[in-house]
Amino acid sequence: MKTKKTAALGMLLVVSLMLSYVDSLINFFPQIPGAKAGLANIAVCFLLYRYGIKEALIIQILRVFLMSLLFGNASSLIFSLTGAITSLIVMYFVKKTELFRIESVSVTGGVSHNIAQALSAAFIMNSPGIIYYVPVLMIFGVISGLLVGYISKKIIKIIKS
Amino acid sequence: MPPYYKKMFKLFHSKDFSLIFIIVAAAALLWLVLTFVTFDGNYAEVSVNGEIKACLPLSEDTEITIREGSQYNTLKISNGFAEVLSASCPDKICVHHKAICKTGETIVCLPNRLSVTIRGKKMEVDAVT
Predict the structure, then answer these.
(1) Which of B19, B109, B119 to probe the A interface (max A CBs under 10 A)?
(2) A139 contacts on B by Cβ (under 8 Å)
(3) How far is the CA of A36 from the CAs of A9, B60, B91, in angstroms?
(4) In a mutagenesis test of the A interface, which of B106, B112, B113 is the best target, namely the one with the most A β-carbons within 10 Å?
(5) If exposure means fewest CB atoms within 10 Å of the residue's CB, which of A105, A114, B60, B115 is most exposed?
(6) pLDDT (tens digit, 0 to 9) for every residue of chain B, 129 residues total?
(7) Which residues contact A85 (CB under 8 A, 6 or more apart)?
(8) Do A132 and B30 touch (CB under 8 A)?
(9) Cβ contact, residue pair A108, B97, below 8 Å
(10) Which of B92, B122, B129, B121 is nearest to B107 (CA)?
(11) Which residues pair with B46 in a beta bridge?
């Protein structure tokens, strides 16, 4: 039965990569390098609710590494990795409190992803000016978090394996 | 009560709504703080590979092109704002970046290793090297 799970995770990794690619095509905010519609978080939410933190963490890390190998450069790796891991940890703890719906969990994930990514970019590129964008990023995080959460909820209901 | 009143009541009293409200309120608060605590800068410091190439006062409208080998970035200062008009880099992130004016704001062109930062203190060297 373990092969079934491995195969499913493999497919989810691919889905996550595809979503991440679509993310990188949509440019809501050309002025902020790295601001993306968080579609890739759909896969993360699904993993978190269907499987668990370990699987979600592995897929996230693999996805970030593969994406930066295929499409990015060394520095984008660090930003994305920080954002992805931070948002996953935040989402895990929020989900653990069992107080909030999946949409809100995904909102916290999206917002923390953006903030972490912006902060790491500001730190590495030595430009504190990026802080000016954090409020906007937070609002976008909320909006995309709600959307992602809604979609994740529907998908979790539909896929029953 | 009519059904939609009940729904509204539930929405405003849900934890989810409070969470989202807190995040939005924090964002608004941060924006307010940033607007009042930061200052317009005095000049734009342009560096390539860490070396300062030019210091351009924001008060004078200028347009200069920084070249490094086959790479170039064209900067424009106007109305106290600094922006990148055109560049040789493939992704043009620097060109799309919003014009900057506050101390600390930065436009970076990673492929060309160029960085434009707004500084607030007085310039010591008023020159383009």
Answers:
(1) B19
(2) 24, 27
(3) 24, 35, 16
(4) B106
(5) B60
(6) 677 777 777 666 678 888 888 999 999 998 888 888 777 778 888 888 878 888 888 888 888 888 888 888 888 888 888 888 888 888 777 887 778 888 877 888 878 888 888 887 655 444 444
(7) A57, A60, A61
(8) no
(9) no
(10) B92
(11) B54, B116
Contacts of A30 in chain B (CB under 8 A): 93, 96-97
Backbone angles phi, psi at B73, to 5 degrees: -140, 130
Q: Is the ipTM of this complex over 0.90?
A: no
Q: Where is A24: in which H helix or E strand?
A: helix A2-25
CB distance A127–B105 less than 8 Å?
yes
Euclidean distance between CA atoms A69 and A142, whole angstroms:
29
**What is the amino acid identity at position A80?**
S
For residue A61, what pLDDT is reported? 92
- H or E stretch covering B77: strand B71-78
The four Cα atoms B54, A134, A140, A108 give a dihedral, to 10 degrees, of 140
